[in-house]
Amino acid sequence: MLGLAAGALVLLAAAHALALEVQITTVHASEHGPSDAQLIDLRPRLRRLVGYHSFQVVGKEQRRCAWQTSEVFAIPGGRMLHVVPKGMRDQAVVMSVKLMDGSRALVDTDVRLQNRGVMLFGVGQDARAAEGALIIMLRAED
Amino acid sequence: MASSDWELVQRARAGDRDAFRELVERYQRKIAALALGMLRSREDALDIVQETFTKAYQSLDRFKGDAAFYTWVYRIAYNLCVDQQRRAAKEPLLTLDADEDARPAHALPADDPHPDQPFARARDAEIARRVREAIRDLTPDHRAVILLRELEGLSYAEISQVLECPKGTVMSRLHYARRQLQRRLRELL
Amino acid sequence: MSAERVMTCAEVEGLLDAFVDAELPAPALLAVARHAGGCEACDAAVRELTALREAVERSVVAEAEALDLARVWPAVSQGVERHDARVEWRRRLRTVPAWGVALAVAASAVLWLRSPEPEPARLAAAPRRNQAVIERIDSSGHFELRRDRKYGTTLIMVSDQAGK
After folding, report:
1. Number of domains in chain C
2. Domain-located, residue C17
3. Does C63 touch chain B (CB under 8 A)?
4. Is the CB of B150 less than 8 angstroms away from the CB of C52?
5. Sign of torsion, CA B33 B39 B44 B49?
6. Among B98, B121, B141, where does a domain finish?
7. Global pTM value
8. Which end of chain B is less crowded, N or C, counting CB atoms within 10 A of the terminal residue's CB?
9. Are residues B8 and B91 in the same domain?
């Protein structure tokens, strides 16, 4: 049993070296209501950047994504975020990111994001939410 | 008959969340007034109110009752305001952010003394704005003593507990702060 | 200080703040009141301090009363629940047997030994923490690029018109 566990750990460690760690946090931004306590430190910057008042985490997922492979993250509200990590260049992660609503690409972009950095995707005027916007925080680390 | 602060604290410690809620509702407006006077932003002031009571709940076991509950809560709020000011000093706002004082107030005060006199109301609003500006131009230490004394009516001894400084320091800061405000606002008052 | 002796303006000046704040002992309070009653200058000084208090009160209280505090308790309540949950979790952790803790430590040690070497420090000017370069972008709707000045955090804001 212990041998099996050790073997699994070794395999896990090997996979660790050949992939990108991607964390997707989805936040609902609105004008009213309380903010999530875990976002308190980020709130002033989110307000300046996004323009809303209150922020609630509605989804969180973290995954190791293999290079050159499309990983799909389900975003609350029925949309999908497709991430294809392509490689590293000058300490930045090169990747393609597509935010899909059914077959429509709300945004389709190639980015170079600083390693361990965060970028945001926002969907405003959201007819699906009662009011406010959906903010998708993408963090990538090799 | 309303429960005393100490009774509510003891009940909250025993798990009675309604008791803590009563404490929050009893003092949230006072903490909001202090935070609003200390900081530039209504939104930051509201955040301070929330954080103050969250922190108070987390530290409830450490409250010994040797000071009044409201004095203890003011101290938490004051320290949070100071931390917020330090963070804001390191992280200047983008130029797109409007100064909240430049916007007209969202609502008239409930006891508007000049309901039918728009010019008098506008003049009062301008005076209030300049008073707030003068208060905010004081250093945080001087701003705190003015707000705790003039707004919250705390005694010198209570202020010295909130700010954790000697009573003599409270008195000299108050003296200085008042003279500064009087110089700024002489023609208005 | 005898309540009979009339104070001088110089003596009163130093006590004005405490007088207005009712922080003087009764005999001194009476002495200052008596002096101010007969001295126009000191009386004016008392009135000015009182006017200042009223102005401060009016200017800040009006703003505070306009604040909507309805969302304070819901936010505090969330923090209270989180705190209580953490306290409960810590209480339960204290009951975990020692062998469970040892196994967790051993597994962490293996993972740590296998993890890649940290990147060596670079001497060149460091890019901002969240810097993102957009090399290409397309959208089926309207989009807007925004950037946070200090950390370089990029936001691609899309306006979803489909639901309309």
Report:
1. 2
2. yes
3. yes
4. yes
5. negative
6. B98
7. 0.58
8. N
9. yes
